[in-house]
TrEMBL record:
SUPFAM superfamilies cross-referenced by the UniProt entry: SpoIIaa-like
Gene responsible for this protein: Slc26a1
Subcellular location: Apical cell membrane
Main location: membrane
Species this chain originates from: Catharus fuscescens (Veery)
Membrane spanning stretches: 53-77, 106-122, 173-195, 207-229, 249-273, 334-354, 375-397, 409-427, 471-500
Protein name: Sulfate transporter
Length: 688
């Protein structure tokens, strides 16, 4: 007999008060620890092994910086903003994560999915404000100064800033929306960190994230096709954007710009070939080939000296100013407009960052603090939003490059920020003649990893059909409806799949493995022996209100006995027998003698006297579950069949005690509850 330990009762009020006193007290040591935790750089930077780490950090920082510049300019197309704002985002994100991040390897900055989500909100608000979403107008030939706005769009929008009416153009309003959205996303992330809501990321399974990324990649690909072939179509908004965009593309395919088509074909061939060669010979290369930078430099030179914009009307990036725009507080009125949109943005940004951080921390044998990562990503959004930047996240592709080039710490992030700063201060105007189709090619080629997920579908289906269905549903909703709706649909659908699994779990009758004390499913294994007069039933899920009926139906079906129907049938026979006896007829209703009637009342199909319920897979019981077990105990007892429970965990036993399953004084508990199936079977044989 196993005796349960007696646990001392915990005074929760005292525990909470003690924690509050401890957290509210302020000592110099506690303040120092708080600063060390909030700025992890203060812990690891003094211990930095310069001779051992510096070369790898500098090399990886330079490579990421070189990759970051063309990607930042390209992803500005996704966000619907000017390239200068993407460069600001990349610069500030690297500096802030260096100070606050706990991962040594992740590369935080501009990310395609986040840029797409920002761009969809920006486009929607521009449309509601009355602006034209067509961004293919010829660029203004400004002098590159910060004060010159591209006024090709003549629509103006009146904003009230601290009581002063200020006229704001399309570009000004677009970055205002983006910074307000980014600020709100950062606030959500910081609040989630304060209230320790990092567990929210658990509801985003790998199938949901992969499906979301693949569906969003299809949306990104679709949005870039018009730049690839040089046609001018409006940027589609709302649900079904992917389908509407493709319809508009085919309607206007005859207007394709031959120069852009040829340039796109050449760039895609060069980029894909370089990527494939890099993947094949990556073990021989000390660092990845800077193919994007080479393509951008060559394409810019060809476009500038070939005058592709003037001669062939090829769309180019236009003037990119140098320096920093004075900081500005995000508009509160705009925050209210985008508050709801910022929530999925905050969750997706955090989840991608934490999942990548944990993956590389496990690979390189160190630990991260998920809650601090929440703060780091939150402030990577809040602080840059004052400097005309938009939302950021960790990116897998750049993180893989970072680790492959010898990154040891986030010093590499500072080096990358310095490369971006060099472009911001001096080199940005040189990209004036860069064709937008080249940027679109860089974006599309960067989606190879996400689009290759389609090749994994057969293998995924072989591993788990339900997860494959979750992937397909999430991907389809993200691509065909919208990214935010797709993410929500994926989360809800994956939860429904879990609920359905617990509602209709596996059930089985068990047989004994010969010459052992172990029992298994007699439908799955051969050469199992049945125990005479004993049925062993296994239910592989928690027993609660949603699967109660399935539990009972499965039990009755497998044992071939419904005790309620059998009890009703017996009562019917007994009633008919009494009626015939009153009439003096010694033969019963079915024509049998009284002695034969007794045999008829105990049907032949009842071939067992004991039911053993294997509770090893029942993780918990709710009130309905306890009542269900009490119900079958009573119903089978009416048929002189005893019910024994085996392999119950402590929480299930406690639920049964509280529910009165064992009676008031638990006197019959040792005859109803057993710690193994074999013990229950031996007890049943002894009782025979």
């Amino acid at each position: 007999v196993m005796e349960r330990k007696t646990h001392a009762k915990i005074n929760r009020k005292e525990v909470i008060l003690a924690k509050l006193r401890k957290s509210c007290s302020c000592t110099p040591q506690k303040l120092k620890n708080f600063l060390m935790d909030f700025f992890p750089v203060l812990r690891w930077l003094p211990k930095y092994r310069c001779k051992e780490y510096i070369w790898g950090d500098v090399m990886s920082g330079l490579v990421i910086g070189i990759i970051l510049v063309p990607q930042a300019i390209a992803y500005s197309l996704l966000a619907g903003l000017k390239p200068i704002y993407s460069l600001y985002t990349s610069f500030f994100a690297n500096i802030i994560y260096f100070l606050m991040g706990t991962s040594r390897h992740v590369s935080v900055g501009i990310f395609s999915l986040i840029s797409l989500m920002v761009g969809q909100v920006v486009d929607r608000e521009l449309l509601l404000a009355g602006f034209d979403l067509n961004d293919d107008a010829p660029p203004a030939s400004g002098d590159g100064s910060l004060q010159n706005d591209n006024l090709s769009n003549t629509t103006a929008f009146n904003l009230t800033i601290v009581g002063i009416n200020a006229e704001c153009g399309k570009e000004c309003y677009a970055i205002g929306i983006a910074t307000a959205l980014t600020f709100m996303a950062g606030v959500y992330q910081v609040l989630m960190g304060i209230f320790r809501l990092g567990f929210v990321s658990m509801y985003l399974s790998e199938s949901v994230l992969d499906g979301f990324a693949t569906g969003a990649s299809l949306t990104i690909l679709t949005a870039q096709v018009k730049y690839l072939i040089g046609i001018k179509i409006p940027r589609s908004q709302g649900h079904g954007m992917l389908v509407i965009t493709w319809i508009n593309i085919f309607r206007n395919i005859s207007q394709a710009n031959l120069c852009d088509v040829i340039t796109s074909a050449i760039c895609i061939v060069v980029l894909v070939t370089a990527k494939e060669l890099g993947d094949r010979y990556k073990h021989k290369l000390k660092f990845p080939l800077p193919t994007e930078l080479v393509v951008i430099v060559v394409a810019t030179l060809v476009s500038h000296y070939g005058k592709l914009n003037e001669v062939y009307a090829s769309s180019v990036s236009g003037a990119i100013p140098t320096g920093f725009i004075p900081p500005k507080v995000p508009e509160f009125n705009l925050m209210l407009r985008v508050a709801l949109d910022a929530l999925p943005l905050a969750i997706v940004s955090f989840v991608f960052t934490v999942s990548l951080s944990e993956m590389f921390a496990k690979k390189y044998a160190y630990t991260i603090r998920a809650n601090q990562e929440m703060f780091a990503v939150g402030f990577c959004n809040i602080i840059p939003s004052f400097f005309h930047s938009f939302a950021t996240s960790a990116a897998l592709a750049k993180t893989l490059v970072k680790t492959s080039t010898g990154c040891q710490t986030q010093i590499s992030g500072v080096i990358s920020a310095m490369v971006v700063l060099l472009v911001l201060l001096f080199l940005a105007p040189l990209f004036y003649s860069l064709q937008k189709c080249v940027l679109a090619c860089i974006i599309i080629v960067s989606l190879r990893g996400a689009l290759r997920k389609f090749q994994d579908v057969p293998a995924r289906y072989q591993v788990n059909k339900v997860d494959t269905l979750v992937w397909v549903v999430t991907m389809s909703a993200s691509a065909l409806v919208s990214t935010e709706i797709g993410l929500l649909v994926g989360i809800v659908f994956s939860m429904l799949c879990i609920i359905v699994r617990t509602q209709r779990p596996r059930t089985a009758l068990l047989g004994q493995i010969q010459d052992t004390s172990f029992y298994e499913d007699d439908l799955e294994y051969e050469n199992l022996s049945t125990v005479p007069k004993v049925k062993i039933f296994r239910f592989e899920a928690p027993l609660y209100y949603a699967n109660r009926n399935y539990f009972l139906k499965s039990l009755y079906r497998l044992t071939n006995l419904d005790p309620n129907l059998e009890a009703a049938r017996r009562k019917k026979y007994e009633k008919k027998e009494k009626q015939h006896l009153k009439k003096g007829n010694h033969r019963t209703a079915n024509g049998l003698g009284i002695g034969e009637t007794t045999l008829q009342l105990v049907p032949k199909q009842i071939d067992f006297q004991t039911l053993v319920v294997d509770c090893s897979s029942i993780s918990f019981l709710d009130t309905t579950g306890v009542n269900t077990l009490k119900e079958i105990l009573k119903d089978y007892k009416n048929l002189n069949i005893s019910v024994l429970l085996a392999c119950c965990n402590p929480s299930v036993i406690d639920s049964l005690k509280r529910g009165g399953y064992f009676g008031k004084d638990f006197g019959c508990m040792q005859e109803m509850l057993f710690y193994s199936i074999h013990n229950a079977v031996l007890f049943a044989k002894d009782q025979k």
